[in-house]
Design goal:
Helix content of chain B: 25-40%
Distance between the termini of chain A: 37 Å
Structural class of chain B: alpha+beta
Strand content of chain A: under 5%
Number of helices of chain A: 6
Oligomer: heterodimer
CATH class of the largest domain in chain B: Mainly Beta
Strand content of chain B: 25-35%
Number of strands of chain B: 22
Shape of chain B: globular
Number of helices of chain B: 17
Shape of chain A: globular
Distance between the termini of chain B: 44 Å
Largest sheet of chain A: 2 strands, antiparallel
Strand order of the largest sheet of chain B: 10-11-13-14-15-16-17-18-19-20-21-22
Radius of gyration of chain A: 17 Å
Strand order of the largest sheet of chain A: 1-2
CATH superfamily of the largest domain in chain B: monomeric porin ompg
Number of domains of chain B: 4
CATH architecture of the largest domain in chain B: Beta Barrel
Chain lengths: 160, 642
């Protein structure tokens, strides 16, 4: 029913947040990915009330990356990658998946180019994700380069 | 959002400087007020819905459920619908300019504005229409096409999640099957930093936290429920018209800065979603049956009962469900590889692994990676540095290119909204220690181990206020046989991949035999940890066997020394002999070592035969020993769920 909110636990644990995500404070970062075990585990959850006290609150107004809780369109791709890195890397390694499909949509990949996009991501996984938790900006830049190198996908690189 | 005092100050100032305009506005306001009274708008259902008025328990009045003062424009707005309506009309004359910090009241209360406009037909010459750029931008960002009711299933290991949760998802126009993750979720939750699940539950039971609506990308909720908590999600796509969706969004916008006292049982996450849906479609009555408590799965049921409201259901299995599904058909060898690779004990480059066919390697790597991520998400990373390990698996899998995919996880036959009713009444009779009896048993919620599983989690028992009254006829006569305030059992089978702890806790009043032969009701608390397994296949077996360490504390002045403390164990096996027929054998013992000392044990066989979704037959046989007295008991009863 209710999500337990743990405010800024990881910001106090520098060792875990290995790469400082340089999204100007807009990233979801590592916060999503570490949980706890036990009979009554407290789940680390990112909701607008806990980790992001107001940034993503509706009717809060403007922040760098959101307006009244809605993510600005030029931040959407970066925020999506930031919040889904393990899943994205996984889908890329397999060559398909829901998370990868969502990324393709954000970039604007047309249906006809979808298979190519998936293949390009799979073949260049080590460039896009040189480490599993590469900084989001690095992932974006690498992905852009990979697209730019393909004749059919280059059009999408410029829109990223 | 302007605070109310500030707003009124602005209006006052306006009145000072623009007296003639204010007088004109006043005239029109009076006209509108007069017409609203003539139409009895303050009595209309939609006005009450927008203000979340609820009938008082005693007396004819109402009270608004919202607790934030900013929600009420009249000083007595919380209890006076007419006063609130007239104050609302008044603030619509404000010419406050919209900024990032404040909105004009026509925008801040946009759903009220729209409804009152529809009813009264505001004259723009006398009450200028304000544009609402922030609301319009927000709505444009949502780009709404349809609304989905999302239900992450019940999760026993976190008290606030024991009944599941519901949230809304706003599906966008450019969204399709593959891009649901990009939608926005609207969620009502208690706003607190409380980290402890038990402490939170207690706080929520007494309404000590404010509840608020929030919005965030659906993909974050999916990561949370699916990957971190490993809860399946059911997505119920609804058939709301564009106009209804507009009303819903306008009202959510109004509610954004507003808090409601969050009450665990009744005014919880699921309840307020129903109220929001009622605003969207005024003809709906979803909340009146939830006077005392609102269980999330029941709120889903009531929505689905509305003709034509459900468009489609989508099942989203959690990470753990997917892993289990893929491990099931694997050979012993493949499973071993999954475990070894995920734990970093074997390298993907090893020659033995490379010798396997590519398709098999792909499958093993995929499941291995998902399993490694499962371990990390649940705080049980197998190595100190899991990132390089995961990365190695990722790279190895990507080098294999496209490979045939496993079939998707089959959608469960019985959805959470299709299971047995959450309340139960049972009528039965039997014989205990030589005395015949008839029994009436009742329970408001939720699900017991022996209840039919469809729509629920096998092995997860959650019961509140289960009690039985028996009439033994001559001799003992009628009596309250037992009352369990709460009775939770979590039997989670272990295997080489998943090693959850089982546990149980219950408290209430139970009959305790004394040396004299009397059987008073004594208060007890009882519980402990346990382990469970499925047999014969550790991953997919039908029979669950369990073992618990249990301790008991009993308090009653009739006990020797007024109390008893005991420790012991229980064992059992639970199996489905057919789709309808479940049986459980059990044995338990407690050595009461302090207070009223005793060695007590019990053993028995319980059976349930499901006649229909909401009807079942039970047959329980047992033998018990307390205070050196033994007796047998047998009970047959008919259970009805509703």
């Amino acid at each position: 029913m209710k999500k337990l909110l743990i405010a800024a636990v990881l910001s106090a644990v520098p060792a875990i947040a290995s790469a400082v995500d340089n999204l100007g404070g807009c990233g979801w970062g590592q916060k999503l990915f570490n949980g706890q075990s036990g009979i009554a585990p407290n789940v680390l959850a990112a909701t607008t009330n806990g980790l992001f006290p107001n940034t993503f609150s509706m009717s809060f107004g403007t922040s760098g990356c959101a307006q009244d809780g809605a993510i600005r369109s030029n931040w959407k791709t970066a925020m999506f990658i930031d919040g889904n890195k393990p899943r994205l890397a996984r889908d890329m390694s397999i060559g398909n998946g829901e998370t990868l499909d969502a990324l393709a949509h954000l970039i604007g990949v047309r249906d006809a180019d979808h298979a190519k996009f998936n293949r390009a991501a799979q073949e260049n996984l080590s460039r896009i994700f040189p480490s599993e938790n590469a900084p989001t900006e690095q992932v974006l830049v690498a992905l852009k380069q990979v697209l730019a190198e393909d004749r059919d996908l280059a059009q999408y690189a410029s829109s990223m | 959002m302007p605070s109310v005092p500030r707003l009124w100050w602005r209006l006052l100032c306006l009145a000072c400087t623009l007296a003639p305009a204010a007088a004109m506005a006043n005239d029109y306001l009076n006209e509108l007020i007069a017409r609203s009274r003539a139409l009895h708008l303050d009595e209309r259902r939609q006005w009450h819905r927008l203000l979340h008025y609820s009938p008082d328990l005693t007396g004819p009045g109402v009270h608004g459920l919202a607790d934030a003062p900013r929600f009420y424009l009249a000083r007595d707005g919380k209890t006076n619908p007419r006063s609130e309506l007239e104050a609302t009309l008044a603030v619509f004359f404000s010419d406050v300019e919209e900024t990032q910090q404040v909105q004009n009241p026509q925008c801040a209360f946009i759903a009220r504005y729209r409804w009152l406009d529809n009813q009264l037909g505001f004259d723009p010459a006398r009450m200028p229409r304000r544009r609402c750029p922030r609301f319009e931008a927000w709505r444009a960002a949502l780009n709404p096409q349809s609304v989905t009711l999302v239900f992450p299933v019940a999760y026993l290991n976190n008290p606030p999640s024991m009944y599941g949760h519901t949230l809304l998802r706003i599906d966008a126009k450019d969204q399709d099957e593959k891009t649901r993750l990009l939608a926005y979720a609207i969620n009502y939750a208690a706003n607190t930093d409380e980290k402890n699940g038990v402490a939170f539950t207690i706080g929520a039971l007494i309404g000590s936290y404010p509840g608020m609506f929030s919005m965030l990308p659906y993909y974050l909720k999916v990561r949370e429920y699916s990957d971190l908590e490993n809860r399946d999600i059911w997505e119920y796509e609804l058939n709301l018209t564009p106009e209804e969706i507009e009303r819903l969004l306008m009202h959510v916008w109004e509610l954004a800065p507003v808090y409601f006292d969050y009450w665990f049982f009744d005014e919880n996450c699921s309840y307020y979603l129903l109220e929001v849906l009622e605003v969207a479609r005024p003809s709906l009555d979803l909340t009146s049956r939830f006077r005392w408590w609102a269980i999330p799965s029941d709120t889903v049921r009531v929505v689905l009962e509305q003709p034509g409201l459900l468009k489609r259901v989508v099942y989203r299995p959690s990470n753990a469900t997917l892993i289990r599904h893929r491990l099931g058909p694997m050979s012993e060898g493949e499973r071993a590889w999954v475990g070894e690779l995920a734990r970093g004990r074997a390298a993907p480059q090893s020659p033995e692994f490379a010798a396997l066919p590519a398709a098999e390697r792909a499958r093993v790597l995929e499941v291995g990676l998902d399993y490694l991520n499962y371990l990390r998400a649940t705080g049980r990373s197998p190595v100190a540095e899991p990132e390089p390990l995961a990365h190695a698996l990722l790279l190895e899998r990507s080098s294999l290119g496209d490979q045939p995919a496993d079939p998707p996880v089959p959608v469960l036959e019985v959805r959470p909204d299709q299971g047995h009713g959450t309340s139960r009444l049972a009528l039965g009779g039997g014989r205990r220690d030589g005395a015949n009896f008839v029994e009436l048993r009742a329970r408001p919620s939720y699900h017991a181990l022996l209840d039919p599983d469809g729509g629920y989690t096998r092995g997860a028992q959650l019961e509140f206020f289960d009690f039985a009254v028996r009439d033994y006829g001559k001799g003992i006569g009628p009596r309250l046989e037992d009352l369990k305030l709460v009775n939770i059992v979590s039997i989670s089978p272990r295997n080489e991949f998943f090693q959850p702890l089982s546990w149980k806790i219950d408290t209430g009043w139970t009959r305790r035999r004394l040396a004299s032969g009397a059987e008073p009701l004594v208060f007890e608390v009882h519980g402990g940890p346990g382990l469970a397994w499925t047999v014969p296949d550790s991953l997919r077996g039908n029979t669950m066997i369990y073992a618990f360490l249990e301790s008991t504390a009993e308090i009653d002045k009739r006990l020797e020394n007024g109390f008893a403390l005991g420790a012991g164990a229980s064992f059992g096996a639970l199996t489905d002999l057919s789709a309808r027929w479940r049986a459980e054998v059990y044995a338990r013992g407690q050595r009461f070592f302090a207070g009223d000392t005793d060695t007590a044990w019990a053993a028995g066989l319980r059976q349930r035969y499901a006649l229909a979704t909401d009807w079942a037959l039970r047959l329980d046989l047992s033998r018990e020993r307390q205070e050196n007295q033994s007796w047998n008991a047998a009970l047959i009863s008919l259970h009805h769920y509703f």
